[in-house]
Design a protein that fits this description.
Blueprint lengths: L5 E4 L7 E4 L5 E4 L6 E5 L5 E5 L5 E4 L5 E4 L8 E4 L5 E4 L5 E4 L7 E3 L15 E3 L6 E2 L7 E5 L4 E6 L7 E5 L15 E2 L5 E2 L27 E2 L4 E7 L13 E6 L4 E6 L6 E4 L5 E4 L5 E2 L6 E4 L5 E3 L9 E2 L6 E2 L8 E5 L5 E5 L5 E2 L1
Parallel strand pairs: 20-21
Antiparallel strand pairs: 1-6, 2-3, 3-10, 4-5, 4-7, 8-9, 11-12, 13-14, 14-15, 15-16, 17-18, 19-20, 21-22, 23-24, 25-26, 26-27, 27-30, 28-29, 30-31, 31-32
């Protein structure tokens, strides 16, 4: 790399190889499933890091980042389409190619169901600048387009079963009735997931960013045993119709993120007036001295670390009671177990990794 802007260290098994092409693109070979962060440097070059498998990635950039998720099997290429959207296709040689992207935050979703490559689509959206909205549904034929007047129109490019038009400002919702994996983008950067499959799980975002306590605001079902409610402004929220599943609630007021496990009713969530949370009756995890922040244990051995009021962070090792890590920057972090007794802390915003 030039200018010392990129540092890649401790790559596992040599699986991650970053090289520069003459047209300004970067190629990484043999990527595994997981979520990735692409950081755009000041000279327009980019770096791709796997938040799960690369042990430590550090970048000198402190500007906007690019986020990719759900890469399927290591055989896709990101290319620029004529209309400014992006799509993944298969090169059949195990390479990922990322073309020059504009500034912004991007999410890529692959919901491939085992059919032939030509029968699906991978749509990329810019979540920060609100240029595009993605949703890779069952048939992969859905695109939400900006009409350049503040309104959006959703068209089903296959058979016209799902059509939404003239969606204004904060009320953009993308809905499908089949698989329950959906994403929508609101005008001010808030995201709503909707699952109307059984008529129970509906999340509505009000004009002022608050949520009513009338039973209509519940977490949406992602059809994989998880529920998610994300990118909300500060305020009070309520969880209704809680089933025997895992729920994730994220309040971006100060980058806090907490996980509650409602499998047997042992976990409860409270939202204080200043945006802080309390998790009570925890079976796993450890409350801090004032009961405000907690580290929760996911069912698969991974952990979510919430940030403290004063900007400091404490990581609790549930096996031997040790505490490590402090004074991290504001943001949302995910702690991943690398299955060898070591852990990696990933900042989803800054792309920083800390042991």
């Amino acid at each position: 790399m030039y200018g010392g802007l990129y540092v890649l260290s401790d790559l596992q098994d040599g699986r991650y190889i970053l090289s520069e092409t003459y047209d300004g693109r970067y190629i990484l070979s043999d990527l595994c499933d997981g979520r990735y962060v692409v950081s755009d440097m000041h000279d327009g070059r980019k770096i791709l890091s796997d938040l799960y498998d690369i042990r430590c990635i550090r970048s000198g950039l402190h500007d906007r980042k690019f986020i990719f998720s759900n890469l399927h099997d290591g055989k896709y290429v990101l290319s620029d389409l004529y209309d400014g959207l992006y799509v993944f296709s298969d090169l059949y040689d195990g390479l990922y190619v990322f073309s020059d992207l504009h500034y912004g935050r991007y999410v890529l979703i692959d919901m491939y169901d085992g059919r032939d490559m030509y029968d699906r689509r991978f749509i990329l959206s810019d979540l920060y600048d609100r240029w595009y909205i993605l949703n890779d549904l069952h048939d992969g034929r859905y695109i939400l387009r900006d009409q350049h007047d503040g309104r959006y129109v959703l068209n089903d490019l296959n058979d016209g079963r799902y059509v939404l038009s003239d969606l204004y400002d904060e009320r953009y919702v993308l809905i499908d009735l089949h698989y329950g994996r959906y994403i929508s983008e609101l005008y001010y950067g808030r995201h709503i997931l909707n699952d109307l499959h059984d008529g129970r799980n509906i999340l509505r975002d009000l004009y002022d960013g608050r949520h009513r306590y009338d039973g209509k605001n519940v977490l949406s079902d992602l059809c994989d045993g998880r529920y998610i409610l994300s990118d909300l402004y500060d305020g009070r929220y309520i969880l209704i119709d809680l089933q025997y599943e895992l729920y994730v609630v994220s309040d971006l007021y100060e980058g806090r993120c907490v996980l509650i496990d409602l499998h047997d009713g042992r976990y409860a969530l409270s939202d204080l007036y200043d945006g802080r949370y309390i998790l009570s009756d925890l079976y796993y995890g450890r409350d801090l001295y004032d009961g405000r922040y907690v580290l929760s244990d996911l069912y698969d051995g991974r952990y979510i670390l919430s940030d403290m009021y004063d900007g400091g962070y404490i990581l609790s090792d549930l096996y031997d009671g040790r505490y490590i890590l402090s004074d991290l920057y504001d943001g949302r972090y995910i702690l991943n177990d690398l299955h060898d007794g070591r852990y990696i802390l990933s900042d989803l915003y800054d792309g920083q990794c800390t042991f």
